[in-house]
């Protein structure tokens, strides 16, 4: 213990408190923070440019040793669009119900669960792996259904399942709150997706919840899991961004791609695609060997065209059609026909 005590000092405590207050950090954000902490602790000026990634990793390792006994952990992942490494203070053994129960009402938590179900079930089909939701689609879920479609594993209803729901204005406020708290991110086109912090903290829960095979789908062995990971970096793939060009392959690559064979589970991030195919020296899917076309996307670009327009708010008539007719272009059975 004496060795641990020597490695755990006021500098470590200050860093942990700062990270807990922010929830997430990047290296660029951590440098001035650690510089200020070191300046105060060592009583001599430390500049932000003097802080290295090794310094950050040392503080994280020391903190993880201390907080692991409480099912807490500092994890890291690459942001799916910026590709910057993001560090987050997470609870390693809970679900979103437990995470938010202390600061949100049962109605708000029930609304969040319906939004997650929409992201990873309604708008995540073999043909259209959107895994994102527009404001209009989310607000449409403000009312609780008469009876939940699913119970928890022990057979009891999830917290908030008997709630009356939210008003539409309350649902809109809840979406903004989830962004402010770091659970959701909102794209320029108006799509909500899970943030890096949420993907790190809820990774196990997402896989357990949405990759379980229902009894009705037990015979559908060819259906890929709903939550899919990049075969290169092993992180979850949910988003898509601007198209870029790789000169070597003369093909279009976006931040969230899938194999053109519908039943193949291979998915890749943009940055991962470039390095992966450069090392593989072939343009074939690493799983099924089908030619990698680069034009089948994961994320908001996988949404039907009318839904993408409504999400951006560029066409009021299209938006009205999307809201009033949720089955149009978004119902899984209709999409897959």
Molecular shape: globular
Write the element-wise H/E pattern from the N-terminal end onward: HHEHHEEHHEHHEEHEEEEHHHH
Largest sheet: 3 strands, antiparallel
Mean pLDDT: 77
| Oligomeric status | single chain
Helix/strand/pairing category: alpha+beta
Instruction: Note the beta-strand portion.
Output: 5-15%
Helix run count = 13
Q: Total number of β-strand segments?
A: 10
* Rg over CA atoms: 22 Å
| Poorly predicted runs of 5 or more residues | 148-162, 240-254, 312-337
What is the CA–CA distance across the termini? 63 Å
Strand order of the largest sheet: 1-3-2
Helix proportion: 40-55%
Q: Would you write up a description of this structure?
A:
This protein is an alpha+beta fold and 337 residues long. The protein is built from 13 helices and 10 strands. Strands 1-3-2 form a 3-stranded antiparallel beta sheet, with helices on both faces. The chain has a 3-stranded antiparallel beta sheet with strand order 4-6-5. It has a two-stranded antiparallel ribbon with strand order 7-8. Helix 2 (10-22) packs across helix 4 and helix 11 crosses helix 12 (316-324). It starts with a helix and ends with a helix.
What's the quick description here?
By secondary structure, the protein is an alpha+beta fold. It has 13 helices and 10 strands.
């Amino acid at each position: 213990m004496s060795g641990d005590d020597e490695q755990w000092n006021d500098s470590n405590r200050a860093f942990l408190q700062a990270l807990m207050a922010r929830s997430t950090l990047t290296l660029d954000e951590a440098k001035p923070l650690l510089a200020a902490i070191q300046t105060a602790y060592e009583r001599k000026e430390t500049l932000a440019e003097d802080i290295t990634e090794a310094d950050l990793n040392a503080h994280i390792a020391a903190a993880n040793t201390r907080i692991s006994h409480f099912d807490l952990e500092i994890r890291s992942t690459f942001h799916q669009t910026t590709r910057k490494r993001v560090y987050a203070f997470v609870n390693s053994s809970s679900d979103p119900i437990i995470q938010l129960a202390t600061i949100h009402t049962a109605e708000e938590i029930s609304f969040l669960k319906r939004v997650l179900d929409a992201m990873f079930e309604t708008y995540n089909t073999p043909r259209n792996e959107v895994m994102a939701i527009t404001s209009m689609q989310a607000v449409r879920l403000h009312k609780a259904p008469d009876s939940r479609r699913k119970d928890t594993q022990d057979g009891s209803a999830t917290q908030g399942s008997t709630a009356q729901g939210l008003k539409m204005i309350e649902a809109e406020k809840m979406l903004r709150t989830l962004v402010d708290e770091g659970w959701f991110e909102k794209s320029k086109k108006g799509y909500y997706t899970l943030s890096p912090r949420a993907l790190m903290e809820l990774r196990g829960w997402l896989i357990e919840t949405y990759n379980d095979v229902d009894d009705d789908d037990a015979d559908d062995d060819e259906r890929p899991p709903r939550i899919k990971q990049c075969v290169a970096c092993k992180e979850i793939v949910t988003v898509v961004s601007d198209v870029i060009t790789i000169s070597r392959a003369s093909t279009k690559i976006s931040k969230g791609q899938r194999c053109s064979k519908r039943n193949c589970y291979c998915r890749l991030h943009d940055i991962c695609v470039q390095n992966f195919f450069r090392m593989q020296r072939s343009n074939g899917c690493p799983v099924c060997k089908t030619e990698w076309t680069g034009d089948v996307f994961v994320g908001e670009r996988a949404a039907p065209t009318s839904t993408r327009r409504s999400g951006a708010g560029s066409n009021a008539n299209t938006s009205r059609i999307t809201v009033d007719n949720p089955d149009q272009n978004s119902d899984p059975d209709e999409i897959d026909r």
